[in-house]
Amino acid sequence: MSLFKRIKNIWAKPAPVQAEKSILSLTAGDVCEVSLVTYQVTGRTQNRSRNAVVLTLQDGTDIRYLCIEERERTVFALYEQIDGRLDEIDEVPTTLELDDRAYHMEEHFSGMIMANGKTPFMQGGEQHVWQYQSDDMRLLRVEWQDGRFMLYTGESVLPADVHVLRGV
User: Fold this and answer.
1) Cα(129)–Cα(49) distance, integer angstroms
2) What is the pLDDT of residue 140?
3) What pTM was estimated for this model as a whole?
């Protein structure tokens, strides 16, 4: 190596270190593991006012939704879509019964979301969400946006069961 190249390498700036992706910053194309199942992230909706993200995850033909909310601690819930119908946004009940299981409303909130990739709601806008829980700790989530309802059932996931495997 010539003397000039050695001097040039001394003055050269080191390559910047890329920050590791966190579960809250995953986007379409990233890969994560939830409860020992590997998923590819295909979409993302984000509600900045609640510091919450819903990731659309795909494993083969199975599609799941990982809800992540950063509060005093990070809360995870894994959902799958179910068939169901509600008529009016003003008539969402405080108790829902599905498959001989009673779900009780824990929370109702609304806010502006941003959507990227393949998500149930293909564009951002105002979204209303109702979250329910049954006596046996099963979860139910109802979302409404642009006159359309989506229903999901799921369960809480321990933070130790969620891992980022590869970020784009």
Assistant:
1) 13
2) 97
3) 0.86
